[in-house]
Amino acid sequence: MAQVRLNHIYKKYGDVTAVKDFDLDIQDQEFLVLVGPSGCGKSTTLRMIAGLEEISDGELYIGDRLVNDVPPKDRDIAMVFQSYALYPHMNVYQNMAFGLKLRKFKKDEIDKRVREAAKILDIEHLLDRKPKALSGGQRQRVALGRAIVREPQVFLMDEPLSNLDAKLRVQMRTEISKLHQRLKTTVVYVTHDQTEAMTMGDRIVVMKDGVIQQAATPTEIYQHPANVFVAGFIGSPSMNFIQGQLSEEGGDVLFQGTGLKVKLPQGRAKSLREKGYVGKEVIFGIRPEDIHDEQLFIESSPDSVIHAKVEVAENMGSEMYLYLSGIADKWVTARVNARSQFGAGAEVKLALDMNKVHIFDKE
Ligand code: ADP
Known about the structure:
Blueprint: E1 4-13, E2 16-26, E3 31-35, H1 42-50, E4 57-62, E5 65-66, E6 77-80, H2 92-102, H3 107-121, H4 136-148, E7 154-158, H5 166-183, E8 186-191, H6 194-200, E9 203-208, E10 211-216, H7 218-223, H8 228-233, E11 240-249, E12 252-257, E13 261-263, H9 266-274, E14 281-286, E15 291-292, H10 295-300, E16 305-315, E17 319-325, E18 332-337, E19 347-352, E20 358-361
Parallel strand pairs: 3-8, 3-9, 6-7, 7-8
Antiparallel strand pairs: 1-2, 1-4, 4-5, 9-10, 11-12, 11-14, 12-13, 14-20, 15-19, 16-17, 16-19, 17-18
Helix pairs in contact: 2-3, 2-4, 3-4
The structure holds adenosine-5'-diphosphate.
Residues 13, 16, 18, 36, 38-44 line the site of adenosine-5'-diphosphate.
GO biological process, one term: carbohydrate transport
Pfam families: ABC_tran, OB_MalK
Protein name: Sugar ABC transporter ATP-binding protein
């Protein structure tokens, strides 16, 4: 068990700065997820923690120990990769035992740890099998088992589920979360999948171009994204963004975009005034689920009623995605109940939940 401290860490490959001023304390027993699009520096960050990449600048602590120059095998970490990296000629038992054997553990101790881990992962019946006789999910469990037997202070996981099919991925997501609760170890987990990040992380770090955009709990990230990038990356379908201006009119703060003029609630108006946003060009954000078609909501929200045309209606079974024109330069997505039964071409009246609106600086 250990805290991991990344103190103003940089990684440079020649002229490319892959990770820039990464500054974060990962708490003991925390499940921390690094998420972001391909190439944003997630793996490089993880590999620096593992000791597989040299740190260009900054300090890395695992527990109280400065480990910048400590080789990977002495860092007391275990890494799980997306490719599993199992030895094909060894059976499951031998694969799990291998790392301990290398470290000269006694046979009894190895046996105890392998059997314990196999029990936790429910692969006791597979110990004699070779990897080729295992399913993808079973191989993934063995890869986890190999990390567990080491009883490391920190688990590092690099997209461990990306080779599994969708259903198995959901199942293993839950299993890894349960495993974390049981082992109470610090986990740093890399993924490009925002759903994995949201469902597994105690805390999520959203990265872009090697820079941390926001580090916060899933709820905080969802409800209070720090910028347009985070807001657009987390949430599906993605948040709608509309460019426009905030203005003061008869004691109210209004947002006006191309096809949209709405009044902000008094509480929001006050804080927007204080932050100096009034009179400025801004980006107005609203999530698809915060656009409502229920009559009651529309009647009680006269300040935020919009008229739009349904261009495309996608029925997802229990809900429906409406792609709407007439509100902004591009289509706006609304997520409504499938009972709504709107079809393409329909002229609709909807209301925005103005308490859920986000206002961002124009970038
Ligand atoms: P992610 O894991 O988020 O997809 P990476 O950490 O793999 O991103 O890569 C971050 C950036 O560093 C990318 O621009 C990538 O091209 C660059 N990069 C990674 N490894 C190397 C390397 N060995 N040499 C040069 N550039 C690299």
